TrEMBL record:
This is Enoyl reductase (ER) domain-containing protein. One of its GO terms (molecular function) is oxidoreductase activity, acting on NAD(P)H. Residues 12-337 form the Enoyl reductase (ER) domain. Coiled coil: none annotated. It comes from the Eukaryota. It comes from Vanrija humicola (Yeast). InterPro entries: ADH-like_C (IPR013149), ADH-like_N (IPR013154), ER (IPR020843), GroES-like_sf (IPR011032), NAD(P)-bd_dom_sf (IPR036291), Trans-enoyl_RdTase-like (IPR047122).
């Protein structure tokens, strides 16, 4: 089959012919129709992936084969989900076929288009991991209350997290560039401020509209000024900020009333420890997080209900096939992708 893999020199992606994955117990084989692009995909290609690793996380397609004993899905079913692309040579969504455990896919209802399903996997999984699992909010129809802060409202995760937080009952305040204000508000944000006005202005505006701050926040950028801003809008009594990267020691020390919780959706996809980090050195081992995989399998059973309640992917921009993905990586690396999700038709 054709797949986008890390090249032999480990300097970037190349389309190559590789074996169709061999199924393990509990696996299904998916013929990929569409694959979405996330920031983690180009970062793996640039810094993490080893030669031959298949790139890409998000996918949607049709079940082509089922391992003996798998009864949750059947050949011909339309499914979507995410895998840890860029880490292994026998899985990854930028390929004609992929293997994935049968309990870690969303069986798509008729009203969900494949291209939309391919654009939401990492964004929704990351949002649920932070807002529901880590911060202890229940799935609908249970309702939360108060304000929720999201740094990076126009990112893929930010848009989907805004939708999710609204469904859970929160009012949402976020930051974005002015060109994306209308988009972020269309996903449910109650207040949006320009992050380019500087940290002090952003913090002052958030504290003003929330009457003193929030108890929970999600920082989708997790570097630079975003960490301090997210911490400064937490109420003095304390609260939690979820991150997509590990915070630096100086930031955590500066805000002792804030619980910083870095999370990786990859812990949902494995039953073994894995290493992640620069291939040049400095990789760290991520342990198995007890209960993560089971939580994710259960969370996937809520996806159709969430969709019917209004969850949507970021705006989809359809692109070409495997050969066009490296150009999409370059666009994202150069900061040219904002308020949208590239999706490739395979």
């Amino acid at each position: 089959m054709k797949a986008l893999v890390e090249n032999d020199a480990e300097t970037g992606p190349v389309v190559a012919t590789v074996p169709v994955p061999t199924l393990q117990p509990g696996d299904i084989l998916v013929k990929v129709a569409y694959a979405g692009q996330n920031p983690t995909d180009w970062k793996h290609a640039a810094w993490i992936s080893r030669a031959g690793d298949i790139l890409g996380c998000d996918f949607a397609g049709t079940v082509a084969a089922v391992q003996d004993g798998e009864t949750r899905v059947a050949v011909g079913d339309r499914v979507a989900g995410s895998v840890h692309g860029g880490k292994f040579n026998d899985r990854g969504s930028y390929a004609e076929y992929l293997r994935v455990p049968g309990d870690l896919v969303w069986k798509l209802p008729a009203q969900v288009e494949l291209q939309d399903a391919a654009a939401i996997g990492v964004a929704l999984g990351t949002s649920i991991q932070a807002i529901v699992q880590s911060q202890g909010n229940a799935f609908p129809p249970a309702q939360a209350s108060g304000w929720y802060f999201i740094y990076g409202g126009s990112t893929g995760v930010g848009l989907v997290a805004t939708k999710l937080a609204k469904l859970l009952g929160f009012k949402v305040v976020t930051v974005a560039s002015p060109k994306n204000f209308d988009l972020v508000k269309s996903y449910g944000a109650d207040e949006v401020f320009d992050y380019r006005e500087g940290a002090d202005a952003v913090v002052a505006n958030v504290l003003r509209v929330t009457s003193g701050g929030v108890k929970q926040a999600l920082d989708t950028i997790s570097e630079g000024a975003s960490l301090a801003i997210s911490a400064r809008v937490i109420v003095p009594e304390g609260g939690q900020v979820n991150l997509t990267l590990t915070p630096d020691a100086a930031t955590t020390a500066a805000y002792p009333h804030v619980k910083f919780v870095p999370k990786l959706m990859y812990t949902y996809m494995t039953q073994e420890p894995f290493s992640i980090g620069p291939r040049a050195g400095g990789a760290v081992t991520v342990p198995v997080i007890p209960g993560d995989r089971e939580f994710y399998a259960q969370a996937l059973t809520h996806y159709t209900d969430l969709y019917e309640r209004g969850i949507r992917p970021p705006p989809v921009v359809l692109r070409g096939g495997l050969e066009d993905i490296p150009a999409g990586f370059k666009d994202m690396q150069d900061g040219k992708v904002s308020g949208e999700r590239y999706v490739y038709k395979l």
